Structure formats: C-alpha cells, structure tokens
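Weekly modeling sync, notes
Attendees: AB, CL, MP (scribe)

Item 1: holo prediction request
CL wants a bound-state model with magnesium ion before deciding which constructs to order. AB pointed out that an apo prediction alone won't tell us much about the pocket. Agreed to run with the ligand included and paste results into these notes for async review.

Input as submitted:
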Amino acid sequence: MDNIQYEIEEKYLSPYAFKSINTKGRVRPQEPSLYRTEFIRDRDRIIHCKSFRRLKHKTQVFLSPESDHYRTRLTHTLEVMQIARSIARGLRLNEDLVEAISYGHDLGHTPFGHAGERALQDFTHFEHNEQSLRVVEVLENDFLGMNLTYEVKDGILNHRQNGNPSTLEGKVVSLADRIAYINHDIDDAIRAQVLTESDLPRELSEILGHSVHERINNMIVNVINNSKDKPYVKMDEQFDSACSKLRAFLFERVYNDSEPKKEEHKAVEMLKILYQYFLSDINRLPQGYRALNAADCQKVCDYIASMTDSYSIFIFNNIFVPKGWQY
Ligand code: MG
C-alpha cells in the first residue's frame, strides 16, 4: 500500500485505535484514494454535503435566536468535533474516524431541535440518530446516499448515550457530544439570562470546574486520564455522576421550563400541521421524496426532518398564510 496515511496510523495509533486499513468498507466498493484513508474520504464527503450546510439554520436549544452568539446545530457539531479530536489525540485513537462521525452525527436532526423530534414522534417512530444514518445512507447525494464506511455509519447511529458503537472512536464522539452540549447549553442559558454561573449546584462545580472553559478542559482531561491504554473510553465515576447530575439540572432549569422555550409549542404545532398536510396527499411532497421506496409516513418524516427552522416556517407560510394581493 503506497498511501503514507496507513504507515502513519500503524506507527502512531494505539493498539485500541481502529485503523482504517481494517474497515469493513462500503456497500458499493470503490477504488482506494491516492492520499486519503477511507475515513478521511468520509469526512470530506460529509463536509461537502447539503445536510451539513443546513445545520447552520437548525436550532440547538434556543429557537432561531436573533443574537448571532447562540449555538446552532452547526456550531454544536464543530464543538463536538473539537472535543472528540482532543480526546482521540490524547488516547492516540483514530482522529479521522472521530472527525467523520462527529460531522455526521446530527445530520438527521429536525428543525427546532428536540421539540421538532417530539412533534414527529407523536405520529410515528422517529429518532434523530436513526435519521442521521438514513440521511447518509439514502437521502443525501440526490437520494443516492453517500456510500460511507461501516465504522462511520455505526458511530453515527450509536452516538447517543445509551448507544453501543463498535469502535472506541464512536464512543469518543458519544462522550464528546455530551461534554459539548452540557457546557455550551449552560453558556447559552447564561447568555439568555436563564441562569448565572452561581446558580449551578456548588458541589458539582467543586468537582467539574467553575466556568464553561474550565469544565470542558477538566472533562476532556478526565476522560483521557481515565482511559489511557485501556480498552474503553469513559470518565471516572465521580466525574460521570457529576455530569449526569449537571445534565439533570439543565433539564429542570433550561430544557423543560424556561422563558426562551416558551415559543416551542408553536414550533411543535406547526410541524404537526405540516406533517398532516403532506401525509394527507403524498403528491404534495417534492418529487425526490415522493419517489422514495418507503412508507408514506417515512417519506413525510424524511422531508420535514430535512428542513431548517427557517425553511419550515417559509413552507408553512406559503401553504397556510394568505398572501396580500400584489398588482
Ligand atoms: Mg449532538
């Protein structure tokens, strides 16, 4: 194999890393690339796909915020990638695999964050991690799919906390996702004046740190120290339990009940109306979605989940809000 990347992996990666030479490959086999491993290729494919660009107009926690400083799905994704790569580098795991999984993990997210997900779940089975897999396997690339490697798809599907990825790199992304959202959602909640740093439970700050920056760093360092030369990737028990408590605190104070979330029920109602509108006559869907080999409810979910916040409002207005007469 002339490709120098394989030598680099062989030389520098830990015995627990997943080396790209061992990939189970793609559904449709392809000629190897001259200078890239299969995981670098997957990363590049995801960065250049349309669903990746749409992440910039999808809600993270605060709906279509007017301030430019709140997280969106895109900046969340970039923060996950940074944290995941920091952990992977510290553990000498495969950074390219980690990067590809990070970029792909939330591609299936609905508009309006988890509120959008709940709207679809009222009608049918919908989970954003399964939808992310569907995006890369079926919907992207003009409904041909992106033909990614097994390990990248496995990491995308299993990125949630209870997932069981087949590589440690997949586990790294799952942890990085949690570290990223806990910290940036606190930061955004402080920005939105829902919280102040001193509202956070003192006993948790004593363990995890007293600012967003301190906590991110401490969590990354804890994962690395606790997982060096081990066949697993995890925080130690004290950190893990403190993180879970901090997450529970966020649910109570930010995710479930806070002033900036008050508009959320409107987003849910709007998406439900759109769902019923398209399901009642499947010919209203764009041609590509109509032609999918899937149940009607799946086609409608695929279309709605693909929308950004702003596009779903645009479509709703177009269909249900009368336009003034123009002459
Ligand atoms: Mg995520």
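Recorded for review: The first helix runs from residue 4 to 12.
Action items: CL to compare against the apo run; MP to circulate these notes.
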